[in-house]
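Notes for week 9. Today we move from apo structures to complexes. The key idea is that a small molecule is not decoration. When we ask for a structure prediction with flavin mononucleotide present, the ligand SMILES becomes part of the input, just like the chain. The input block below holds both the sequence and the ligand string. Read it once before you look at the output, and try to guess where the molecule might sit.
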Amino acid sequence: MSLELATAGESHGPALVAIVSGLPAGLTLDREAIDADLRRRQQGYGRSPRQQIETDEVEVLAGLRQGRTLGTPLALVVRNRDHKNWTWGMNPWPPEGEPQGKGTKPVTLPRPGHADLAGVQKYGHDDVRNALERASARHTAVHVAAGAVAKALLAAIGIAVVGEAIPEHGADTAAVDAARKDRDTLGGTAVVRATGVPPGLGSYARKEDRLDARLAFALMGIQAVKSVEIGDGKELASLRGSAAHDEINTDKTRMSNHAGGIEGGMSNGEELVVSCSMKPLPTLMKPLRSVDLATGEPAEALVERSDVSAVEALAVVAESAVAFELARAAKEKFGGDSLDDFVAAHRAYLARL
Ligand SMILES: Cc1cc2nc3c(=O)[nH]c(=O)nc-3n(C[C@H](O)[C@H](O)[C@H](O)COP(=O)(O)O)c2cc1C
């Protein structure tokens, strides 16, 4: 059974939900490790005050018994603590009583760079909030919880995945301070590295099997990410073949790793290196020009509590996305209804290599 992830949840709704199916039975999960990743996602210089309201913690509703997976769908929940301020505005049911709290008035001022305008046009909403609540990156929290589960599966076969922000743009504290002072925002770049990846995850057989294509899809699916590079990426275009390709030692390792550990859509046994870059965040405290959808008149865009930079968080979200995709590829390659079967298949494969 393939490893799959489905999620639901709005930014200020009651909770974020994920269902992870296809996990082998017998995998031990550590609640502390999942919560530690959730906390990492909330950190970073330049985050909004929302992060002080939320203290994300995972709840497990199904698929786990006494800390070990059952081989059945794993249901994860991360509650939105801020929902208590939105119980009228974001009530799943028609709310009773007088409007109170936040989200009671329709938003009609779409932000350039956000999902607001195209979202209301596409779905026929007259309140931008109906689009922005799901478009928001808040639900990356539950992706990070699922990524932590994927990392536990990968650890069983010796694969470790770590993401970090590149210290420039939105990860530079002086640049963040300056942008905050100007009521502006920043973007930035995160790099994710995975060690212990055996050769042969992914395949050249079909384009949808290619590990590079799958990682690009996973990373491009993160809000605000506008470019993905595998290994030296775009820089390779300016090199000669003699400088670009990773020559092979007799023990089948490489003399360099420009390819970032992927050739022919498969892992090649070297460290996997992928990076992704996010554009500057669209919500500016000094708003950009827009239109009031209620009147058709020129207006300033919505100003809502927002990060100045989220690149440190991006690093954690990207790490989770890469971990989930690697776990999916590993599950495909090694199968196994139980963790023991999965690990044994991995061991037998390495012995054959
Ligand atoms: C971890 C993370 C945090 C984000 N925080 C914010 C934020 O506080 N304010 C904002 O305007 N955009 C934020 N974004 C980006 C928006 O969600 C994103 O730009 C928007 O959904 C439009 O999608 P697009 O940029 O892919 O076109 C964040 C993105 C990520 C990955």
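The CA atoms of residues 121 and 128 lie 10 Å apart.
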